[in-house]
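Reopening this one. Same input as before:
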Amino acid sequence: MLTEAVIKSGAIITVRFCAEYEKGVFAVPGNIYSTVSKGTNELIQNGNLIALGPDDMAKQLEWVPKDKPVKTDNTHKLDKLELEVLNLIENDSDGLPLDLIAQKLNIETSEIALTLLKLEANGLIKTTPDKNM
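Same output, byte for byte:
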């Protein structure tokens, strides 16, 4: 990805090498009156990939963000408690801390902790920075 480049710069030379190896280059558009944007604007004009934000790159490269895991149906392998915990978490949009899950299901926190660990290991839940599920 190239954010700024004058027309005759090392960055533009590198882009030419990328083209020889059939590698796409993202260019960020800049002010049309700025000399340091002329190179990137010309790249866009010549058909290179435009990057207006990170989503443009993610979409073009078919990346899946880490905070939005691809959901696979692993629920058929879960036991009754794991299904109960998963359903409880999925029905709460704010996320639930471990102790509240244990309280709602009337189960020891140690047993819930183990269940949450299994669900997270299977990619079915994710712990947030504030320790909610």
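So the earlier flakiness isn't reproducible anymore. For the record, Residues 10-61 form one domain.
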